[in-house]
């Protein structure tokens, strides 16, 4: 942007002919025309900056909005526990006993490709501020990560930085990292995904909202100074496709300081406790442009801001840059004048810089002054909420018929027990199913002392109330190979898996948040995938009776013509009365009886076995049956509550074989398994039973004397269940009788060697 | 029995340390970095975290906090002080304990359940253990490699002031490259103990790898009673 003299509102009104760099700022010509129409004049350069970032794809959801409306179409049952829904910084759910939790998953994909460490770190920082701005204390984080092929050179550049960034920021904030995903697929080469989740807790009466109301109330900017980093991050970086040349947009990435954020968290909580905050908003994407326009448009009046009062890290920053900067660790609060002194005293105690930069007015507009001159005078809603809405063309991709017709039925399958054993070892050593502790051990999972379960268990579980043990379980899931084959089913399978993973811990699923990662919306095929996935999640949530509380859309995840697989990551949150009673995913007690819940069909489309054994992707994903998922969830929750299970583990990628191997490795306690009866019942062979990925299944270990009560639970819900073996602490092996015996030591060696072999030596 | 827990800006495990004191039967007292008063406590815990963002060097700025001007003379006078992780780093920076911590030899943060051997069960914080006992607590840090010059190491070993060592498998390596597998040390008098692993994360059934951490806090409660 070039600028000579200050471009004031008066100057704009009298110089309609001035050429403006709207295209360089990512606006389309009709969008620029619309801004002129709204204002009745050309925008000032400061106004243009605000509109350009707020009307970017990232902030305005202009391509996705028409589809996301389906998430708001919820039944009464779905709204029952929902305290704050879509539209605020994060959704809030009632978990009982007067406690509320807020959670959200959000992407930071593009910055993490350009600058892995800072991109991932500020992704964590941003989502944590969203949680703080609801009035909550953040209590945990999770991260769903996707990388290109494990052996690709760029993965070696991107992964260590992203992992260190997630850890460096979260560890320093003192938030336990309790789970997530690490997935490798060549479709993410050049477009790694960093989806960060945070969850926070508060008493219901302490919920805060982003609104500026009350004429004369002060607008306070507090936290870090504003610098020149992250300018245009949302418009230039997150809303466009990368060129094949690779990262060149370094200045658009923000730089994080977790120490500043940790202090800001404690400061905010003290401010909330003192009841001196009337409205609050974090500064993330689009910085001050977003915070001021959203606060003002959610309030009942206007807002006046003196921009020259904003503390700067760099005195040479210009008006537009200050409005667009995405400098981290900043918050904006609305404070009654009578509480200002107390507010400032609390900020000072934490050495947090706080500055009154504006006030709420009885006008309608957001007015921004610089050196006494009016440089912005806009209806705030037109910036924050009334951005363009596109109903983009959609078309089922032409390649899909061929892809779905390329069924995996003809792929060579293992013929004997040795072949099955080799297949299992290959899966357990494969990039997506191998042990991830080289990564997850870089995250603090213990801080705060409330972690009851963490990765590699099925979900992360944290205590909310120290008196009663009431707490929450969260799992994030998505198998994008399924979604590539069928985005509607793939999205529902992601929902089903996360729902199941929360249930195996013994938690009642309450709500979801989603992070929808797709390619370019300007490609009709991608737009069709997006629409199908949204429809899948919305309909799935209605069937399961749980609401979508919020989330995030990340488009333009593609390089050139190559889009990523559709990746609708679903996070399900569940509640437990006492997390000390949660069920673990690994068995320990000898002679507990292992049951397989659910029937198995021959379903290999998109499966891990086809990927690892044949590098194949084709056919249809497993069939979705959400009613079956719900009944399975009820059984798992009731069994956990009544103490009928010693362990429970969901079946997903790699099927029964991988679930048995993981449950054995967790505590180094093996099992003896007999498949014959189930093979006969389901009409499948041992290979299919072991490796098919039919949904709606789990394994549990039941104490011998609880078998009757447990099977009664299954019978009452008409749910297929079969005894398939016993926990065996003596053999030191996973023994699938009549097929193979796999010593746990051999299994562990294969499982744990993969990541260190690539990364540890570096 | 009042046990103070200092909160610096950037302290993370201060509430965990307070909980551990409470579960062990003591009364936790919050101490603030900016106050030069110890509020008449009977012992002090410097908790884990990243005080002042670990700017400059872990513990280097915390050493100059007002609370330390009260703590250092009190520790020299015999007040039991436990430094955990960042607290250990602060104790070294304050010269209450010798040596220093540098970045882990593998250059990454590491969080895992860690076995330790109790080498000295005579300090204010370890009297409840048996000499030679093996315990399991949480290890989590970026800068956990204990280093000291040869003379200091010789002196620590000779005077029995190595309190904890990492238990290393045959042919294995300790988790961060610490010299002589040292995880924790004490001063000459045995009232000041610093260690990198986190006993406060092993005090409650279901929320940590063991209950071994409770013994640290019970030890100091009984040592104060007996003093």
Descriptive notes:
The complex is a heterodimer of chains A (762) and B (227). By secondary structure, chain A is an alpha+beta fold. Chain A folds into four domains: 42 residues, no CATH class; 278 residues, 60s Ribosomal Protein L30, Chain: A (2-Layer Sandwich); 177 residues, Phosphoribosyl-aminoimidazole Synthetase, Chain A, domain 2 (Alpha-Beta Complex); 179 residues, Phosphoribosyl-aminoimidazole Synthetase, Chain A, domain 2 (Alpha-Beta Complex), CATH 3.90.650.10. Chain A has 28 helices and 28 strands. In chain A, helix 8 packs parallel to helix 9, helix 8 runs parallel beside helix 11 and helix 20 packs parallel to helix 21. Chain A starts with 8 loop residues before the first helix and ends with a helix. In chain B, strand 3, helix 2 and strand 4 form a beta-alpha-beta unit. Chain B has a nine-stranded mixed sheet with strand order 2-1-3-4-11-10-9-6-7, sandwiched between helices. Chain B has a two-stranded antiparallel sheet with strand order 5-8. Chain B is built from five helices and eleven strands. Chain B is of the alpha/beta class and 227 residues long. At the A-B interface, helix 9 and helix 11 of A face helix 1 and strand 6 of B.
């Amino acid at each position: 942007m070039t600028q000579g003299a200050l471009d004031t509102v008066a100057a704009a009104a009298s110089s309609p002919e001035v050429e403006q760099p709207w295209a360089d700022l990512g606006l389309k010509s009709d969008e620029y025309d619309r801004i002129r129409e709204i204002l009745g004049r050309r925008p000032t350069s400061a106004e243009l900056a605000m509109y350009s970032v707020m009307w970017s794809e990232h902030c305005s959801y202009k391509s996705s909005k028409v589809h996301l409306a389906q998430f708001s179409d919820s039944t009464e049952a779905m709204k029952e526990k929902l305290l704050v829904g879509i539209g605020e910084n994060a959704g809030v759910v009632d978990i009982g006993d007067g406690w509320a939790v807020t959670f959200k998953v959000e992407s930071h994909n593009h910055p993490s490709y350009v600058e892995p460490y800072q991109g991932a770190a500020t992704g964590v920082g941003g989502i944590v501020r969203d949680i703080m701005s609801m009035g909550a204390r953040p209590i945990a984080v999770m991260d769903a990560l996707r990388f290109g092929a494990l052996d690709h050179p760029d993965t070696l550049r991107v992964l260590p930085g992203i992992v260190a960034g997630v850890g460096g920021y979260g560890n320093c904030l003192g938030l336990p990292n309790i789970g997530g995903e690490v997935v490798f697929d060549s479709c993410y080469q050049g477009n790694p995904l960093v989806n960060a989740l945070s969850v926070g807790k508060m008493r219901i009466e302490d919920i805060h909202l982003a609104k500026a109301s009350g004429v004369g109330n002060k607008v306070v900017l507090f936290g870090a100074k504003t610098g020149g980093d992250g300018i245009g991050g949302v418009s230039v970086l997150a809303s466009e496709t990368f060129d094949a040349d690779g990262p060149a947009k370094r200045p658009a990435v923000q730089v994080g300081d977790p120490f500043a954020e940790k202090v800001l968290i404690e400061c905010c909580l003290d401010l909330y406790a003192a009841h001196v905050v009337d409205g609050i908003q974090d500064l993330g994407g689009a910085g001050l442009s977003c915070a001021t326009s959203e606060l003002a448009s959610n309030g009942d009046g206007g807002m006046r801001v003196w921009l020259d009062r904003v503390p700067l890290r760099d005195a040479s920053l210009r008006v537009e840059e200050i409005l667009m900067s995405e400098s981290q660790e900043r918050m904006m609060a609305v404070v009654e004048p009578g509480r200002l002194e107390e507010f400032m005293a609390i900020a000072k105690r934490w050495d947090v810089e706080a500055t009154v930069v504006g006030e709420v007015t009885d006008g309608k507009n957001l007015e921004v002054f610089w050196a006494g001159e009016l440089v912005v005078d806009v209806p705030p809603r037109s910036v924050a909420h009334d951005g363009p809405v596109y109903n983009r063309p959609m078309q089922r991709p032409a390649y899909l018929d061929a892809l779905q017709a390329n069924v995996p039925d003809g792929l060579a399958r293992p013929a004997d027990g040795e072949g099955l054993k080799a297949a299992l070892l290959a899966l357990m050593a494969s990039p997506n199913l191998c042990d991830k502790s080289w990564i997850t051990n870089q995250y603090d999972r213990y801080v705060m002392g409330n972690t009851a379960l963490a990765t590699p268990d099925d979900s992360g579980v944290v205590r909310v109330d120290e008196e009663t043990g009431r707490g929450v379980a969260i799992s994030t899931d998505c198998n994008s190979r399924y979604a590539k084959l069928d985005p509607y089913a793939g999205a529902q399978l992601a929902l089903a898996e996360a729902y199941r993973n929360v249930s195996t811990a013994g938690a009642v699923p309450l709500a979801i948040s989603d992070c929808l990662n797709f390619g370019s919306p300007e490609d009709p095929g991608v737009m069709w995938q997006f629409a199908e996935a949204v429809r899948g999640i919305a309909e799935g949530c209605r069937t399961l009776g749980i609401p979508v509380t919020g989330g995030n859309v990340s488009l333009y995840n593609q390089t050139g013509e190559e889009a990523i697989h559709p990746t609708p990551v679903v996070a399900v949150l569940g509640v437990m009365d006492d997390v000390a009673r949660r069920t673990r995913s690994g068995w320990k007690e000898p002679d507990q009886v292992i049951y397989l819940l659910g029937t198995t069909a021959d379903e290999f489309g998109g499966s891990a076995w086809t990927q690892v054994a044949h590098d194949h992707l084709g056919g249809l994903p497993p069939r979705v049956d959400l009613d079956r998922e719900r009944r399975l969830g009820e059984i798992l929750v009731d069994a956990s509550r009544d103490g009928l299970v010693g362990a429970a583990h969901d079946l997903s990628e790699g099927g029964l074989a991988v679930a048995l191997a993981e449950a054995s490795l967790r505590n180094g306690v093996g099992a003896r398994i007999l498949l014959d009866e189930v093979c006969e019942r389901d009409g499948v062979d041992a290979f299919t039973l072991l490796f098919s990925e039919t949904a709606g299944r789990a394994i549990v270990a039941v104490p011998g004397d609880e078998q009757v009560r447990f099977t009664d639970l299954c019978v009452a819900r008409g749910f297929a269940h079969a005894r398939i073996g016993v926990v065996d602490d003596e053999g030191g092996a996973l023994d699938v009788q009549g097929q193979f015996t796999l010593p746990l030591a051999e299994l562990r060696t294969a499982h744990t060697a993969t990541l260190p072999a690539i990364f540890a030596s570096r | 029995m009042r046990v103070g827990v200092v909160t610096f800006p950037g302290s993370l495990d201060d509430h965990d340390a307070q909980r551990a004191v409470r579960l062990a039967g003591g009364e936790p007292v919050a101490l603030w970095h900016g106050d030069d008063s110890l509020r008449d406590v009977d012992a002090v815990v410097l908790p884990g975290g990243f005080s002042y963002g670990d700017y400059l060097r872990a513990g280097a700025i915390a050493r100059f906090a007002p609370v330390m001007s009260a703590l250092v003379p009190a520790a020299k006078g015999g007040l039991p002080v436990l430094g955990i992780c960042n607290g250990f780093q602060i104790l070294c920076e304050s010269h209450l304990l010798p040596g220093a911590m540098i970045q882990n030899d593998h250059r990454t943060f590491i969080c895992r359940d860690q076995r330790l051997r109790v080498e000295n069960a005579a300090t204010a914080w370890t009297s409840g253990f048996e000499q030679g006992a093996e315990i399991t607590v949480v290890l989590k840090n970026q800068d956990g490699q204990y280093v000291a010059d040869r003379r200091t190491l010789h002196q620590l070993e000779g005077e029995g002031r190595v309190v904890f060592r990492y238990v290393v498998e045959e042919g294995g390596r300790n988790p961060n490259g610490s010299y002589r597998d040292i995880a924790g040390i004490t001063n000459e008098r045995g009232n000041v103990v610093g260690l990198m692993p986190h006993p406060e994360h092993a005090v409650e059934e279901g929320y940590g790898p063991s209950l071994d951490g409770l013994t640290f806090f019970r030890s100091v409660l009984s040592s104060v009673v007996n003093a």
